[in-house]
Specification:
With about 425 residues, this protein is mostly helical. Helices cover about 70% and strands about 5% of the residues. It is globular. Its EC number is 2.4.99.28. One of its GO terms (biological process) is cell wall organization.
Length: about 425
Amino acid sequence: MKLRSFLGFDIFIFLSVIALMLIGVLFIYSSGVSSSGIVYSNEYIKQIISISIGLVLCLLFSFGNYSRLGEWSLYFYLAGILVLVYTLVFGKVVNGARAWITLGSFHVGQPSELMKILTILYLGYFFDQHRNSIRKLSTLFMSLGIVALPMGLILLQPDMGTALVFVPIYLFSAFIALVPLRYLFFLVLSGFLTIILGILPEWNSAILHNEGFLIRILTEASFWPYLILVAVLITILSLIGFISYHRKYFYWTGFFAFSSALSFIGAFLMQKVLKDYQIMRLIVFLDPEIDPRGTGWHIIQSITAVGSGGLYGKGFLQGTQSQYRFLPMQSTDFIFSIIAEEWGFIGSFLILLLFTVVLLRGIYIIWTAKDRYGKIVGAGIVGMLFFHMVVNIGMTMGIMPITGIPLPFVSYGGSSILNSLISIGILLNIHQRRYHF
């Protein structure tokens, strides 16, 4: 029997996850120690409890037949939507977002974390059931609806970081499900333009200070209805031209015009839904010195911590940025900054190496899965973990905007740990059953 098949699961991905969680516990402990050596936080104990529960769930999900999850996925998904609605109405506000279910003073969990894996399971089932109509626009719109519903509810909390995770979940799943690439390109282009147009007014006000005619049209909302109307008219005319003459330039003109129209609509909704501080986070990413005592403080202190670690770091429990509490949310969003400061480049490289093992083994599991459903679900999980890793580590280094996304297996948070370990359990299950089809 090969080592990777021992006990029916991929031992390499499992051990890498264990190593990441052990490192996480160490630095959650470090984040709760003051400069005088006093331990003022018991978060590391809570994390150990969450890991213990999560490992049990991981092992439970790694056995059995994961295809049964697909058969029940719609009911799980709808139950998750109902819980999100309940949270939106009765949930507890933490860090500005009504995202928690509580019993008294006890935080039961953050349903949006679990909703990620529920969406992955149902989206995979939907794509699998519609394999013969995957190229139809109706299938595309229905699959987008599966992702848009939880995204919208989470944005209303508001929790932009968690909502954004559903984007790579969809793109990775749709790519493996063989959704036409032009559809995916359209979605990526529209999303990118929506973000640019959504932050452009604040960006121009804070950084560009450009009074040009073009910038004025793009930043003043009073012009947007006219721009949307022009884009829609161009789309209609291009569609007529394509139907009449079958020229590709009509197709692509309409393609970009329709994308522009949707982007302006999305940017308008983005400005209405997101809070000012969330938009400012995106602006500060471009220039942290705009608000060095406010939103920019996070990035400046994180970059300072990462840069001061050097090659070997200052030593465990010796980080000044964390010990003197200069780093905000240092046990959750910015835990990688503590690792980089105390363990230096070597520790940072170790974290990246362990995540690389997890992601590469995840890709291997997708590649070797014998059924379509397993491949799509595996892709959704890999996309979710990849996005979490890139955005979290990127924002601590100042190359990604602050979005409040935790580092899987490492950051403090019971809901995040449970979701991540359940996801790994499903990946292990797909690997175990690769010869059963």
